[in-house]
Write a structure and sequence with these properties.
The complex is a heterodimer of chains A (383) and B (380). Chain A is α/β, with parallel strands linked by helices and 383 residues long. Chain A is built from 14 helices and twelve strands. In chain A, helix 7 links the parallel strand 5 and strand 6. In chain A, helix 2 runs parallel beside helix 9 and helix 3 crosses helix 4. Chain B is of the alpha/beta class and 380 residues long. Chain B has a seven-stranded mixed sheet with strand order 1-7-6-5-4-2-3, with helices on both faces. The relative contact order of chain B is 0.13. Classes of the chains: A alpha/beta (383), B alpha/beta (380).
């Protein structure tokens, strides 16, 4: 496809890679498994030298992702954690980060157990409160990383306000956009510098690949991320690049369905006698509801809910028939997680409990199955 | 998953087995193994990958569940599925088929089957009396395609299957255009349903596959026997991709169908367009019959330009659709039937059927319909 700024997101998604293979006109861009490339002569290159440094299939994916997020450059990695780790390598010993406290346990683990040893210090704050972020900024602070909506409690941070603070204090503003994707939330347009994705989730969307993405708003930072990607090499293999391109084609359709279904499921759970709380930004009583309305075009497919006791939570997980009890999220299949013992197990218990991530909290990634089937499964499991 | 109790949207996502029994994996593994260890010298459920493969089994079960069949069979291409299903016939048999059949099926029926001693009559299958006239003592089966490609002739499936039952004939139907989401031929009395799964079921213009299903255990046994004996089976990786494509079928097809309706209505009002064929149009001749046996109009439409001189410039100027044979992908595909999908049919036959050089077919994708229309209107 020739790049055309007027085309809508749906059209761009469906057309990723189309028209890029000029030799054959192939609709589906080819998978280039080649590890290396023949040089025409000494000092000459076809533009491709070695697949860690550049691969045609990966380039089509990266160009597509940059366009979707509205960034200058995108880089794809072997997993969401590989993307984050590569980004953290941008910082130096002595640097200080401010990170959302309502965040994925894996991010916490790599900061706490890997980067702490490399001299990176981190403050975990409630990033839904701007004042809390501001008071955590020190002379050593270099960046703020927010996950919004948060995981698993779906707290909503004001991206434009955080980005404004970052500009004033010359900090890098990083937004993990995994839960909403560029279809629903566009952090770079709200002033963020870098967007992070676990593309394993909605971008991949079928629970069948692991991948991570970094998108930089400015080319200069994009080049720095390319340097780190090439230097450390946690790149996504060509086959998975191709599969991810395939996934992106239906992203808009899937997100629309995820949003609609999650809204229905959330409202139903809210009325259920055994459910004591439902966390979903689409609910009017959610503290981040109004802010979500302003900065996103949909509330996403993720929700969490609390049941009366840890015993009931375990019962639910045992009795589920349609919904799988599994880590991860964002796929066409509905998945349920017990964050306290799965995704957030690496967060110290006291800290977890302070945040409200106890063993009666369940997180649900609502799939694209028929909504009555999903609700029936939840009801029989709660009964 | 006990899929029969779930709604279609759920069955599409979960299919037959929705988690790997050994590991709980959410995606069914791609079993590349060509052969399987025989424990204690005895074969298990799987003994050799041509005969059976768990990845292939996934899509075979999926099509059976979706169409209401007993067993499903997956092949390397749609034509391999057509050929394998027609292996239910034998030398000396006679087959009745539509005269406006898809070009690839037409080539197989008119050149390959006669060499095997099977004769074929191509008739206007929408006219029940034409079918009756064509029946001889040697007639064994009727082959159907509805809506037909590319002119959307609608065949009354219930009427043809009633006639076939009365005369002891087998019916086979190519359901590629509709998919089980919109039309369920087995429930209307058809014996064997065939799909080019390359199209909507795969849905991403990135694999080739054919599927066959039947509710009749005897026919299933013979299809299984021939699939194994001939071996035109679907490879494990493509089975995985096809299963993955099926998961989003409802989202893709519903979106594309909505856009197709919009484009058909707008094309109908365009001064450069002579005629539009689409079952969703209010004045479409077969509309009532189509909606008596299908729940949607689908995502493919054909239209004819008033002037032949406009065809080449349109194909040159249009930017968004891929110009190619095939259909059913997320990307919109524009086909010049005369030179592409129906190239195998002789010119005089095409003209007799009404497939003129001014005829174009659009398989509407999931792009934004306004982008599609702007592009199409500019090229027109």
């Amino acid at each position: 496809m020739t790049r055309n700024e007027t085309r809508t997101l749906e059209t761009r998604l469906a057309q990723i890679g189309v028209g890029r293979d000029e030799r054959t006109g192939a609709i589906s861009f080819p998978i280039y498994p080649s590890a290396t490339y023949r040089h025409p002569a000494v000092g000459q290159s076809t533009g491709y030298d070695y697949t860690r440094s550049g691969n045609p299939t990966r380039q089509v994916l990266e160009a597509g992702l940059a366009e979707l997020e509205g960034g200058a450059r995108a880089r794809v990695f072997a997993s969401g954690m590989a993307a984050l780790t590569t980004l953290f390598l941008h910082f130096s010993a002595g640097d200080h980060l401010i990170v959302s406290e309502d965040l994925y346990g894996g991010t916490y683990r790599v900061l706490d157990q890997v980067f702490a040893k490399l001299g990176l210090s981190v403050s975990y704050v409630d990033t839904t409160r701007l004042a809390a972020i501001e008071s955590a900024v020190t002379a050593a602070t270099v960046a703020i990383l927010i996950e919004t909506p948060g995981n698993p409690l779906l707290g909503v941070a004001d991206i434009a306000a955080v980005a404004g603070l970052c500009r004033r204090r010359r900090l890098l503003c990083i937004v993990d956009n995994t839960f909403l994707t560029p279809v629903l939330q566009r952090p770079l347009e709200l002033g963020a510098d870098v967007v992070v994705h676990s593309a394993t989730k909605y971008l991949g969307g079928h629970n069948d690949l692991c991948s991570g993405v970094l998108v930089a708003r400015e080319a200069q930072l994009g080049e720095r991320l390319y340097f780190l990607q090439n230097a450390t090499g946690a790149v996504l293999p060509p086959q998975d690049c191709w599969l991810l391109i395939r996934s992106l084609k239906t992203l808009a359709l899937r997100m629309e369905r995820h949003c609609r279904s999650a809204g229905e499921v959330a409202r139903r759970l809210q009325r259920h006698p055994q459910v004591t709380a439902v966390y979903y930004p689409g609910l009017e009583n959610h503290p981040g509801h109004e802010l979500s309305r302003r900065q996103t075009s949909g509330f996403g497919g993720m929700l969490s809910f609390r049941v009366e006791s840890p015993e009931l939570a375990r019962q639910v997980l045992e009795k589920l028939r349609l919904i799988s009890f599994a880590e991860s999220l964002g796929g066409v299949e509905s998945l349920m997680t017990l964050p306290a013992v799965q995704t957030h197990a690496d967060i110290p218990e006291a800290e977890r409990l302070r945040l409200g991530v106890c063993e009666s909290l369940l997180r649900l990634s609502v799939g694209i199955e028929s909504v009555p089937d999903i609700i029936a499964d939840l009801e029989q499991a709660l009964a | 998953m006990t899929a029969k109790t779930y709604r279609t949207a759920t069955v599409l996502v979960h299919q037959g087995i929705d988690r790997d029994p050994a590991t709980g994996a959410s995606a069914i593994p791609i079993y590349q193994a060509s052969t399987y260890h025989h424990v204690g010298g005895r074969p298990g459920e799987y003994d050799y990958a041509r005969s059976g493969n768990p990845s292939r089994r996934q899509v075979e079960d999926a099509i059976a569940l979706l169409e209401g069949g007993g067993r499903g069979f997956a092949y390397a291409t749609g034509m391999a599925a057509v050929g394998s299903a027609l292996a239910l016939l034998r030398s000396g048999d006679h087959l009745i088929a539509p005269n406006d059949l898809y070009g690839g099926s037409w080539r197989y029926l008119s050149t390959v089957l006669p060499e095997q001693g099977i004769t074929v009559s191509f008739v206007d299958i929408t006219d029940l009396s034409r079918i009756e006239e064509a029946i001889t003592p040697a007639t064994r089966a009727i082959f159907l395609e509805t809506p037909s490609n590319p002119l959307f002739n609608i065949t009354d499936i219930r009427a043809v299957t009633a006639l076939a039952r009365q005369r002891g004939l087998l019916t086979l139907l190519d359901n590629t255009f509709m998919t089980p989401l919109l039309q369920r031929p087995l429930e209307l009395g058809v014996d064997v349903v065939i799909h080019s799964a390359t199209k909507f079921l795969g849905g991403h213009s990135d694999l080739m596959a054919g599927l066959v299903t039947t509710a009749d255990p005897q026919l299933a046994k013979r299809l299984k026997h021939f699939q194994n004996a001939f071996g035109a089976v679907l490879a494990p990786f493509d089975s995985f991709l096809l299963a993955r494509g099926i998961k989003t079928l409802k989202l893709r097809l519903e979106t594309a169908q909505r856009s197709a309706q919009e484009l058909a209505e707008r094309l109908q009002c365009h001064p450069a367009v002579a005629r539009v064929w689409y079952p969703g149009l209010a004045d479409f001749a077969g509309r009532e019959l189509h909606f008596a046996q299908a729940t949607g109009a689908g995502a493919v439409l054909s239209f004819e330009l008033k002037e032949q001189a406009r065809v080449a410039p349109l194909l040159q100027q249009i930017r968004l659709p891929i110009i190619a044979p095939s259909l059913g992908g997320v990307e919109t595909i524009l086909t010049h039937c005369w030179s592409m999908s129906h190239a195998a049919i002789p010119a005089e036959t095409k003209l007799r059927l009404g497939i003129r050089e001014t005829l174009l077919r659009i398989s509407v994708g999931i792009e934004d319909v306004e982008d599609l229309w702007e592009d199409l209107a500019a090229a027109l």
